[in-house]
Structures
1.
Amino acid sequence: MSSWSARRVGLTLLLLVGASCAHAPRPAVTRPQDALVELSSNVQLVDDGESASLRVALDQSLIWLRTRPADHRFVYGPREVTAGALVSALERLRARLTDGMSSLDVSKAVLEDFELLESAGGEDGTVLFTGYYEPVLEGSLTRTDEYRVPVLSAPDDLIEVPLEPFAERFASERVFGRLEGKRLVPYWNRAEIRGGKLSPRKLELAWVKDPVSLFFMEVQGSGTLRLSDGGERRVGYAASNGRPYRSIGALLIQEGVIPREQMSMQALRAWLAANPTEQDRVLDYNESYVFFRFLPGAAVGSLGREVTPGRSIATDARLFPKGGLAFIHTDHPVKMADGSVQWRPLSRFVFNQDTGGAIKGAGRVDVFWGRGPEAELAAGMMKQKGRLLFLVPKPRVPVAEAAR
């Protein structure tokens, strides 16, 4: 999302959890022309979602695509498609989709106008799927004994500068600093901000109870504050302090307190809750800090349009067509009645409507899960391999030629 994607680093980076593989490394994909290739094997297009949610996501992509010039060209690997052709194909699909359609009927409707290309994957040739969600925090617009942790807006002395001249001093895609006289220096780090460096500025948008929950909202880049009067206010990314992001999950793995194979957002939160005297030290290890702003409505993605739970994905915006129709096949966690977690197939059509700071390369996908416990579970635990395919409109035969 414009607020979300500008910041979101992804829980995989937060936890430093990755899968090793035995494949020889491939050159990293750097061009959109190389990001999509012919299918490596057959795939069944079994959509396990509701057709109504697919229509909602489709409508959001259509709204954005209609703002593009009709001759704007989108790169689908070896193919190029104009915005006009993409809009026409999606409008025809939209007309075919109705509530309650079977998976088979949805697939037939899609394949009337679209054909498949597959992601080239990462250096190991595979695609890693993670998830993100919209956290909900209890908050207050005024400070009380219960609500004491500030949600800060961006300070006016935070200066954004081009990365190139400062590449050796900053480790961020968007570089921020502050002036000391005529010299640009890195902005205050997390520990300094937490310690009150900005307190005199009166930057507080709101207050929350729990610094750990606020930290995780920073990682997501957006969230909802549930106020004591029953109302809600959405907040999203405004800026960061430009400090390098350091994984607290990696820190606790290195310290031997959480085994790598057991690391998840849930494991991190449980450890921090059980070790309150260690919270400041661990959180301050990540010097990066996020400033927020109030959002006027629902969560939006990098297209500036609302994202749909389970139907919107984030990919590398340099490689894959924005707003495009895609299909994903992987696994996701489901909490059972007895509290255990089982992994179930995730197989559905989605739309490429977001991006993120850690979503780099042809081998990364982040699935938006919305809000609530199930969304938090999926976002916290997903780090699964799978397949990413994009649906490219079939070439249309000109009417005059077809009539011959």
Note: Residues 16-22, 163-173 have pLDDT under 50 and may be disordered.
2.
Amino acid sequence: MQLYNTLSAKERAALIKEAGKDRLTISFYKYAHIGNTSIFRNHLFIHWNDLEVLGRIYVANEGINAQLSVPAENFGPFKEHLDSISFLENVRLNIAIEQDNLSFLKLKVKVRHKIVADGLNDKSFDVTNKGIHVGAEKFNELIEDPDTILVDMRNHYESEIGHFKNAITPDVDTFRDSLDIIEQDLADHKEDKKLVMYCTGGIRCEKASAYYKHKGFKQVYQLEGGIIEYTRQVTQKNLENKFRGKNFVFDHRRGERISEDVIAKCHQCGASCDEHVNCANEACHLLFIQCEACAEKMNNCCSDHCKEIHELPYEEQKALRKGKVVSNKIFKKGRSEVLKFKN
């Protein structure tokens, strides 16, 4: 019984290109009570591996959070399998706005303590007492209301390249960091203002809305399906698109363009740019924004130091990394003293 990947990302990418078949990038989440998470994890891996599903899936006692890619021809069987799981029947699937056959290259189903790291004690409040879900049309109305406070529940590197106009965009590295900061900043408006939240696909707002109701906010709303579903509804219903820029996504695409606005700048030269890259030096791998001119000048690196290392023969690079405990800077997304034009 195979419960792990047998192909490297490079090997999988070659097979996908050779097959020449379209794949769909999909995300979904569901809060539910899952007893034996290990058994459930293995069940998903066995069935989805057979369907050539690739992606990053987190399973916890509180539910599931999934970002994945499935061959278009296998979408039917994949949906049938989801519907065969009682709490996932007819779960809302967020289909990516911009498709990329290489968005995911491995199937990773991991058991976690939480499906989103929120740092909350869920036993201290009713997680099912959520805010009011609204679609794109109602959301557009709400955010034009002077009695509304619109809050982006994402992190700084996400909102930096795209957000709704007039939104509060906390300068935080993680979701858990934003919760207390937002409550403190909005403490005087718990009763007189409408708190409207949004995130990528809805999962962060799902927990945050219950938390803020527990903290005394009287009018709490969340954008149903997040930015992804909003964009679909705006297109389908011919509504005004109030999102500016790109929607950051957690796969190889790194972003989906929602509007033609470029609201960010290259972290190295300050030119208008919203393309996230990872530093080519494998000992760094920092996520940052880099324009084409700087990518050419810096050999896809974040600093002169990394450029020097990256230009060494690969075996020398490996030797320099050997035995050193260096935190992978991908988790410091956009935070480095070498980035002169970071907002």
Note: The chain has a mean pLDDT of 93.
